[in-house]
Amino acid sequence: MAETQQDQPARQRGKRRHEVGVVTSDKMNKTRRVEIPRLVKHPRYGKYIRRRTICYAHDEQNESHIGDTVEIMETRPLSKMKHWRLVRVVTKAPQAGTPAAETGALTPGPEPAPQNA
């Protein structure tokens, strides 16, 4: 007897890797550059060294921006360098603040009194 689609057990995909990293570039449309930091122990000296892995992730709605912590998941190759896709934004980056703070403009204060000699 031939088994139908419903009789066969559901075919399981392999487990996909999930990583958490920080968005370092959002200049491309629907693509984010994500840095995944890690600590590696030096083989001889035992000191921990900071290393990073850089991944390009697909962000369909352009919802993440520079400084956001995001969760990405491994997927099929989407382009030459994109093999990851955005799952969710874990935390948003803190905003820079007021526009005056961004431009470096000083807040107006009291004017100094003129000096007459």
Folded structure, characterized:
Strands 1-2-3-5-4 form a five-stranded mixed beta barrel. The chain has 117 residues and is mainly β. The mean pLDDT is 85. The chain contains one helix and five strands; from the N terminus they run E-E-E-E-E-H. The N and C termini lie far apart (112 Å). It is elongated and about 90 Å long.
> Mind summarizing the main beta sheet?
5 strands, mixed, barrel
Proportion of helical residues: under 10%
H/E series: EEEEEH
Report, as a whole number of angstroms, the end-to-end distance: 112 Å
Number of H- or I-type helical stretches: 1
Give short descriptive properties of this protein:
single chain; 117 residues; mainly beta; 1 helix; 39% strand; elongated
What topology does this entry show?
Layout: E1 18-25, E2 31-41, E3 48-58, E4 69-74, E5 82-91, H1 99-103
Parallel strand pairs: 3-5
Antiparallel strand pairs: 1-2, 1-4, 2-3, 4-5
Describe the structure concisely.
This protein has 117 residues and is mainly beta. It has one helix and five strands; from the N terminus they run E-E-E-E-E-H.
